[in-house]
Amino acid sequence: MEVTLLFGSNQGDRQALIRQAMQQMTVIGPIKCSSSLYETAPWGFEADNAFYNIAVTYTTALSPTDVLHHCLETEKQLGRTRPAGGYASRTMDIDIILYDQQVISTPELTIPHPRMALRNFVLIPLNEIMPEYIHPVTHRTIASLLQSCPDTLEVHPIQQ
After folding, report:
1. Is 80 a catalytic residue?
2. Is residue 125 within a helix (H) or strand (E), and if so which, with residue range?
3. Contact 90/49 with Cβ under 8 angstroms?
4. 93 is catalytic
5. Hey, what domains does the chain have and what are their CATH numbers?
6. Is the pTM of this model over 0.70?
7. What is the CA angle 97-101-106, rounded to 5?
8. Catalytic residue among 19, 48, 80, 82
9. Cβ atoms of residues 123 and 112 within 8 Å
């Protein structure tokens, strides 16, 4: 199976934290491909620092729930706290965006990520690595979802 994760950070050494998180997540399986690193203003809240984001596809034999538990543990190990009341700055955020063509809706997990088509910071990195992937719910390609995305936040590649 292939699982695509989106890593994000807007606190601390963002680039180093993302590299560390990507490496720690190889516990689920090897990296198949990754996008460039991008910088984006916070989505849905105000913050002093912009986010760095990257999309990474792993090959895995684990269930989506097991992958989620590894994501949450990695976030915690890298200093993520979850204050009550919605979006906030964070050292690490790892979202499961896609898991092959599976559609999952449980109280703990929704795949594909329910807001992916509303966010340039998700679609732009995905479009770089999988523009022709067909979303299993909308039946549209990532490229098509990006063209119609209502998000106006700019997403800029980071020179590494």
Report:
1. yes
2. helix 120-129
3. no
4. yes
5. 2-157 (3.30.70.560)
6. yes
7. 60
8. 80
9. no
Closest CA to 19 of 81, 78, 63, 66: 78
Check 13, 19, 82, 95 and give the catalytic one. 95
Query: Burial code of 37-66, b = ≥16 C-beta within 10 A, e = fewer?
Result: bbbbebbeeeeeebbbbbbbbbebebebee
Tens-digit pLDDT profile for the chain (160 aa)?
A: 999 999 999 999 999 999 999 999 999 999 999 999 999 988 766 767 899 999 999 999 999 999 999 999 999 999 877 666 666 677 899 999 999 999 999 999 999 999 999 999 999 999 999 999 999 999 999 999 999 999 999 899 997 6
The structure tokens listed for 152 are: 């106006």
